[in-house]
Amino acid sequence: MEQSERKPWKKNLYENQGYEDNYTDPSFLKDLKKNYNLEQFTLKQCLLGVTKISQEISVVTIFLIIFYHLYTNETQPQKLLFNSFALTGIGYLIYVIYNGTNSEIAKNVIEDSKTVFTVLIFGYLFSPILHNLTDSISTDTIFSTTFIILFFHLLLHDYGIDGFLVSRTISLNNGIFASICLASRLSTPFHAFVFLVISVEIFVLKPLLFEKIWKPAMIIPIIGITVYYLMNISKVLLIIYLLILFFINIVCPIIFQRLHNHKCTIKGPWDEAIIFSDDESDSNK
């Protein structure tokens, strides 16, 4: 059949139009869209966004610094417990102010106080058991296991971006499990109790507060505190910490921004159909 005698080509697989199976009409790609809904990021956005990762790395480092001071008895546990209660109290006041009205604040304070009191009582009662929980395991094994667990805590932590690796529950469990492992290496059950209280404040309460008030500028005092204490512990660890932060805060955002700007995605009639609600349809127009 001559080309002029053929019917106009239509995107229809259910009737014989007289065209070869591998025929591609020029109109087939008229609906092709490149970089459809692709969000572009500036270098400033990348640098500010990655501060959440640096914040969590710094907080985990502070967590290990606290363990070091308890492990070597350089700091009295009573002092650490008092300071942690003071900081938690200030953070809680900020949280309830951000999270409720005046009528709700009093009710929340009463209910939360009951919860805190219950947790402290049971934590103190069970601290001797937790302190002796891993006596049969060598200290080197505990430290190695803790390092791996904290790595997975950082890997699975919720940094505000959805992903298949993100899991708040598993990340929290990793942090608490690492705390229990390290608490078993401390000298007394009271040391273990104080360390576990601080661990709950770091891994459970801190994310709730930072989710409400986090600003990229907050990373500066956090890094400053970490650098100050690492300087007094080990210069090598300080250098490793600063190199990690430099790679994550400077190198990674630059690489990501350059590669993302050259990203090319295509969308066409061959893609699966996507069903939108009325609001989503209006926003995509």
List keywords for this structure.
mainly alpha; 285 residues; two-stranded antiparallel ribbon
Could you write a compact summary of the structure shown?
By secondary structure, the chain is mainly α. The protein contains ten helices and two strands, in the order βαααααααααβα.
Structural account:
This protein has a two-stranded antiparallel ribbon. The longest helix has 30 residues, at 102-131. It has 285 residues and is an all-alpha fold. The protein is elongated, with a radius of gyration of 28 Å. The chain starts with 32 loop residues before the first strand and ends with a helix. Helix content is 66%, strand content 1%.
Give the strand content. under 5%
As residue ranges, the low-confidence spans are: none
Please provide the count of β strands: 2
Tell me the overall shape: elongated
Q: Provide the spatial order of strands within the biggest beta sheet.
A: 1-2
Layout of strands and helices, then pairs:
Elements: E1 33-34, H1 43-49, H2 51-71, H3 77-99, H4 102-131, H5 139-156, H6 168-183, H7 189-213, H8 219-233, H9 235-261, E2 266-267, H10 278-284
Antiparallel strand pairs: 1-2
Helix pairs in contact: 2-7, 2-8, 3-7, 4-7, 5-6, 6-7, 8-9
